[in-house]
Write a structure and sequence with these properties.
mainly alpha, Amino acid/polyamine transporter I, 15 helices, globular, AA/rel_permease1
């Protein structure tokens, strides 16, 4: 992980893939159903997704410039430490790792566990989540390149599945007329602001490449480009997915009970056993997200250990540049979070913890 002593095996496409894989989770398949009926028009629904994508893009532009100036792994930890000192850097790094990575891993893997139950009803979600964490962590322990190849394969498969869903959605007759008219008065309303909060969560992860900047080739060039291209691509993908959802059902007939708008749209547009293959798609999406977060999160611990902010053992890597101690510690904390949240009911309790 040391930027001084190892080659930089990750290129532009790997960094872009990491951004895409982290951003695209299950949220895109549920968020719209919770607020669409309050916005009133299809145009306003699409606008809120476009607007939040624009906000994420401005963040990508800003951190891309900052990351090019300090091309080192650690993301906001590195920037805060450089600008505000060791204490600010330490707090930023530990909190980011616990909340944005360990917490996110626990939430995503528990959600994955719930989807796995459709195929293995006797397997508790927490057990499935723990198995996924252990297996993917073990895979990343083989080496940085090997872990990156796995992430790239997951990302390509995930994007391919989602694009296939979009193409299929446009290939069948629409069940609702798409109205792209924008209600300008609604833009300044509290429902629009509330919708922005929900949608913003679906864009989390746009800064992913900054956490692994020390492993990027030509980071001054590839870091900003990967942030911008990855964020722009996901924004476009989200807009297309929402158009598919809106072709299935008008916002006027939606209500807040339709949390799984993606599945609901698929059931309206397609025939056959939709829930099974849709469930498989969600599992693929969540596996990709989990694998990338595991790789990136371990980089934070290793970078902090290099700086003397955490025990030096966490900075150790094997011959293939895998920070095994950091990966193992991260897996242990994630599994603790998983079982703690599971004991309180469901994946949403990770947010409470």
């Amino acid at each position: 992980v040391s930027e001084k002593n190892h080659d930089r095996p990750l290129g532009f496409w790997s960094a872009t893939g990491a951004v895409i894989a982290t951003m695209i989770g299950a949220g895109i398949f549920g968020a719209t159903g919770g607020f669409a009926h309050e916005l009133g028009t299809d145009g306003n629904v699409l606008l809120v997704w476009l607007f939040c994508g624009g906000l994420a893009l401005t963040g990508a532009l800003s951190l891309g410039e900052l990351g090019a100036m300090m091309p080192r792994s650690g993301g906001c930890y590195t920037y805060n430490r450089h600008l505000y000192g060791d204490t600010a850097g330490y707090l930023s790094g530990v909190l980011s790792w616990l909340l944005a990575f360990v917490g996110a891993l626990a939430y995503v893997t528990l959600l994955l566990g719930h989807h796995v139950q459709q195929f293995a009803p006797d397997l508790p979600p927490a057990a499935a989540a723990s198995i996924v964490v252990v297996l993917l962590t073990a895979a990343h322990c083989f080496g940085l390149r090997e872990g990156n190849w796995m992430n790239n394969a997951f990302t390509i498969f995930k994007v391919g599945v989602i694009l296939a869903f979009i193409v299929a959605g446009f290939s069948v007759p629409a069940q609702a007329e798409l109205n792209t008219k924008i209600n300008t008065a609604g833009i300044l309303s509290s429902p629009f602001a509330s919708a922005m909060i929900s949608v913003s969560f679906a864009y989390l992860g746009w800064e992913t490449a900054t956490w692994i900047a020390g492993d990027l080739r030509a980071p001054q060039k590839n870091l900003p480009r990967s942030l911008i291209v990855g964020t722009a691509f996901v924004t476009g993908l989200y807009l297309l997915l929402n158009i598919v959802f809106l072709r299935a059902q008008s916002v006027t007939t939606m209500d807040e009970k339709i949390d799984g708008i993606g599945l609901h749209a698929a059931e309206i547009l397609f025939s056959g056993n939709v829930s099974t293959w849709f469930n498989c798609m969600i599992i693929a999406v969540l596996l990709s997200t989990t694998s990338t977060i595991l790789m990136v999160g371990a980089r934070i611990l290793a970078t902090m250990a290099q700086d003397g902010q955490l025990p030096a053992v966490l900075a150790k890597t094997n011959a293939r540049e895998a920070p095994i101690p950091s990966l193992v510690v991260q897996a242990i904390f994630t599994i603790i979070f998983v079982w703690a949240a599971s004991s309180h009911g469901n994946a949403d309790n990770v947010l409470v913890l």
